[in-house]
Amino acid sequence: MATRGRTPEGRCEVARLLPRPTCGGAPSPPLTSVFPTHFQPNAILKTFLPSKNDGMSQHQKSLYLKLILGLPIPALFQNSPICPCGQQNDGLGCHRIHCRQNAGKAFKPAHEVVVQALKRKHPRTGFRTVDNDNELRANHAHLTSKKRGDLATFSNSDFRFYDSISRLPRPEAIADVKMVSLVNSQGTWTPARSRHKDKIENPGLVQQEQIKINKHAAFYSPIGYAFFSFVVSCFGSFGPTAVRCLFSLADLKLLQHGSFLLDRALTQ
Known about the structure:
This protein is of the alpha+beta class. 35% of the residues lie in helices and 15% in strands. It has a domain at 106-267.
């Protein structure tokens, strides 16, 4: 990592993969703690032991580590440098992350896995959630375009979501999940504005959050919803709002458990 940090491109890659603090405060969802929460991308690798059947295989872990470290990845076919899609295969595997005939086809299933995981987390702290697309379209969509997020969540407690548009706390919120790769198919880690389209190519986690906010927040606020984007990268990194969301849910669960123990002690 030290060697790769000598160039602007390398520093951008290192910045996207190294641990970072996420502060509490107003951004939705709010963190009760005023201290920064330190999040370590790729910490999940610590749980991938070779003896575990439900973790990565040795081959998968080898490819993943080579991808992070920038080491050459073996070609799919030793006698051809061409991907089955017809494009040139790069030696670092960046094309394969995006190719629809390789890892690129896994982005949609990964998106659904994250949505379902987020859905399961909320009811544990007393939230009601809706992820059915027909119900979201009918009852929780933009009034004009009918665009919608991935999950509607409703608080049954004092917990509130911060609406960045009205700057008001809301008991109802819409979450939208986004899977990103952080590196494009040419192996470029730095974001750049497209010369052909008015948008950022290869946005980072924070930039992708803002893209989602621009798309949804102003349309949901007038009908009483807060909005937050839940951005996850295929390298194991979470966007700052996703980190705040998970830690806020854990914080709320801890407070609820403390209240439960106190009530039980008082009644005994």
